[in-house]
Amino acid sequence: MNFSLDDIQQKFRGCGLKSTPQRTAIYQALVHSTAHPTAEDLFAQVLPTYPMLSLNTVYYTLGVLRTAGLVQEVNIGHDRARFDANLSPHHHVICLGCQTILDVMDPKLNRLTSPSGLPKDFEITQYQVAFRGYCGPCRQSKASNTASSSGKRPISQ
Amino acid sequence: MNFSLDDIQQKFRGCGLKSTPQRTAIYQALVHSTAHPTAEDLFAQVLPTYPMLSLNTVYYTLGVLRTAGLVQEVNIGHDRARFDANLSPHHHVICLGCQTILDVMDPKLNRLTSPSGLPKDFEITQYQVAFRGYCGPCRQSKASNTASSSGKRPISQ
DNA sequence: TTGATAAATAGGAATGATTACTAAAAAGGA
DNA sequence: TCCTTTTTAGTAATCATTCCTATTTATCAA
């Protein structure tokens, strides 16, 4: 989870990517974050160090890194793209209140087999489970609005 | 899966929604589709019957139906929202080539339990598994570009 | 070290899905 | 039938993302 600048340079080179200060900074910001930031989040984070940085460059960089397989996009809606540099198999828990995304690395989720009822020429290459619900604070604020439902319920789809 | 106009009217009323011809047509188009259409798809489909229909109305209607819980949004990227009126527990298979979305109703996927490592005050209300890969035709076109990888591989995240 | 070449950067403009605003029309209830 | 509220349709606005392009930079070979 922690990379030196040299590691990152190596990683970029290994993918045939040039290693530039901006690119390194953007990637490092993403690697060190567990918040699944947006392009704009990363822009804001790197801007103090590179005041000439363009948001455009952030988008371009994320595109390049995604193509190279160093970064993945996480979808929680159709608002803004959020990014993740965690390449180990994992899944996501999304709070429907505050849009927080948590990583979940539960080995039992990594053993799902191809679902039944698929066309047999369909080749599955990956899968991801998205759990949705409400984090503690958001449950509080929901409860103060409507006085209902705090008991444990079975998970449904 | 097949609803009469009366059924739909009942359903709308039950949710406190007015039943209008446009709304009914939009919902019906969605219910009868398995293609997870976009707002624009639905607009195009209903337009011949209601030439004065506004795309705006389609968005508004989908928003209302989603709030009422009659419709869900499916995310496959950050391009356009796609919609689904299938309320029974199911999951999705997404072709990375042509963006087709297939419904998967495999009972074994409906028995996942809450993942380990969650904050204990987080309440999961739903989850969905998204399988990604390539459908038959898209595998063909991939293969004609790069001559590689057609054997069966284990699924990874 | 230098020069050549291809990629990366920054800036502004463009795109395109979605939302906001608003007046007119329609639905549902009294 | 009348009233109230929602819905509709049209136009304009928003906002994330992409496109275009000139300049700069990284990398590689000589």
Instruction: Compute the CA-based radius of gyration of chain A.
Output: 19 Å
Q: What can be said about the biggest beta sheet of chain A? A: 3 strands, mixed
Note the run of SSEs of chain A as H and E: HHHHEEEEEH
Structural class of chain A: alpha+beta
CATH topology of the largest domain in chain A: Arc Repressor Mutant, subunit A
Percentage of residues in helical conformation of chain A: 25-40%
- Count of helical regions of chain A: 5
Low-confidence stretches of chain A: 146-157
- The total number of structural domains of chain A is 2
Instruction: Quote the beta fraction of chain A.
Output: 15-25%
Q: Can you characterise this structure?
A:
The structure is a homodimer of 157-residue chains. With 157 residues, chain A is an alpha+beta fold. Chain A folds into two domains: 5-74, Winged helix-like DNA-binding domain superfamily/Winged helix DNA-binding domain (Arc Repressor Mutant, subunit A, Orthogonal Bundle); 88-145, Dna Ligase, domain 1. Chain A is 34% helix and 17% strand. Chain A has five helices and five strands. Chain A has helices at residues 5-14, 21-31, 39-46, 55-68, 136-145; strands at residues 72-74, 82-84, 91-95, 101-104, 123-134. The longest helix of chain A is centred in the middle third of the chain and has 14 residues, at 55-68. Chain A is globular and about 45 Å long. The interface between A and B is large, with 49 and 49 residues. Chain B binds a DNA duplex (30 and 30 nucleotides) through residues 13, 17-20, 22-23, 38-40, 52-57, 59-61, 63-64, 78-81.
